[in-house]
Design goal:
single chain, alpha+beta, Butyryl-Coa Dehydrogenase, subunit A, domain 1, Butyryl-CoA Dehydrogenase, subunit A, domain 2, Butyryl-CoA Dehydrogenase, subunit A, domain 3, four-stranded antiparallel beta sheet, three-stranded mixed beta sheet, 9 strands, 15% strand, globular
């Protein structure tokens, strides 16, 4: 049994960590305070090839494995979850479907520049009346000649205010219901595509989020990605990757909060010694580190399962559930260690506390994840299995 990363993975982690130290940490507080999309660093991520980690070299990608992708997720989130969330949308959900189901022309027009950071892509599923209940979506794609006309409203769309293209989930039949959900690539410049309200959020404020209105948007037939149905199943094929990635983002936030609390516990003196030497604080740090280690093992085991081609629906759900809950607990305890300073905007621990809440939502709520795990209770955990 070998838990070590390869030399290449270690070198990659160091490279991403160096980038975070040099280019993300210095701007993280400003990005959060302004609540603006960090376009300059976003372009840098494209220049360095980080958007193409999952994709073949033929399209400008790297062809890395899931463990390597998680290393990038963790390190970027350690610097800024807002930047990491925007990166994750671009490098996974926002580009996956045009790569998987788009024509060569669509790939060259949208995927290739997106991997270079020259275009911004996103994914639009959620609606005002439909979230986890995918069957409730009302956006409709009506046949018009050999193309389609889309009508509906999407909300909680990551990067909506800055996106150049969207993968939109819409029904193609009112009779077939959820079975008719299809995926459409919609260009932001198509007539009828308008931005709705920008959603002000508690955390990840630099990852802009908003509504998108589709008012009689004429979509060419070639922009239908993979047929007039099966959209739920297509999204389902990357749900495990999304959840493992979100687990890795959680590790990054948890690490940042733990390391900040550890530093502070060694600097802050009370009753004649650093507070970290008092048992009450030492026990908190011990619990935080234990949660972090537990989450790390679950996340990277699930990533390894995916790399081995093993079904990992349950493992991915467990990894995301435990890691996201742990990140919130760690951020909360870090804030308590800082005491009143944990309530002050001058210290980053308040940002970790706020940002961590997003991790309970993205990739499936804890309640939904428990439902998924609950469907597979008969199979005991066995090392090396999925």
């Amino acid at each position: 049994m070998d838990f070590r990363l390869t030399e290449e993975q270690e070198a990659f982690r160091r490279a991403v960590a160096g980038f975070v130290e040099a280019e993300i940490l210095p701007i993280a507080e400003g990005v959060d305070g302004r609540g603006e999309f960090p376009l300059a660093v976003f372009r840098r991520l494209g220049e360095l090839g980080y958007f193409g980690l999952r994709y073949p070299e033929a399209f400008g990608g790297v062809g890395a494995d899931m463990v390597t992708y998680c290393l990038a997720s963790e390190e970027l989130a350690r610097g800024s979850l807002a930047i990491a969330a925007a990166w994750a949308m671009q490098s996974l959900m926002g580009t996956h479907f045009v790569f998987k189901y788009g024509s060569e022309e669509l790939r060259r027009r949208y995927l290739v520049p997106a991997l270079r950071g020259e275009k911004i892509g996103t994914f639009a599923l959620t609606e005002p009346g439909a979230g986890s209940d995918v069957a409730a979506i009302s956006t409709f794609a009506e046949r018009a000649g050999d193309g389609y006309v889309l009508r509906g409203t999407k909300t909680w769309v990551t990067s909506a205010p800055v996106a150049d293209f969207l993968t939109v989930c819409a029904k193609t039949s009112k009779e077939r219901g959820m079975e008719s959900i299809a995926l459409f690539l919609v260009d932001r410049e198509m007539p009828g595509v308008t931005l709705g309200k920008r959603i002000e959020k508690l955390g990840i404020r630099g990852s802009e989020t908003g509504e998108v209105h589709l008012e009689d948007v004429q979509v060419p037939p070639g922009h239908l990605l993979g047929g007039e149905g099966g959209g739920v199943e297509k999204v389902g094929t990357i749900l495990s990757e999304i959840r493992v990635m979100t687990g890795a983002l959680s590790l990054g936030v948890g690490r940042a909060a733990y390391e900040a609390a550890l530093r502070y516990s060694r600097e802050r003196v009370a009753f004649g010694k650093p507070i970290g030497q008092h048992q009450a604080i030492a026990f908190k740090l011990a619990d935080m580190l234990t949660l972090l280690h537990t989450s790390t093992l679950l996340v990277y085991h699930a990533a390894w399962c995916l790399d081995q081609g093993r079904p990992a629906t349950r493992e991915a759900a467990m990894a995301k559930l435990v890691a996201s809950e742990a990140a919130n607990t760690i951020a909360d305890e870090a804030s308590r260690i800082y005491a009143s300073y944990g309530f002050a905007m001058e210290y980053p621990v308040q940002r970790y506390f706020r940002d961590a809440r997003f991790l309970l939502l993205g990739g499936g709520t804890s309640e939904i994840l428990r439902l998924i795990i609950g469907r597979d209770l008969d199979r005991p955990p066995i090392l090396g299995s999925a």
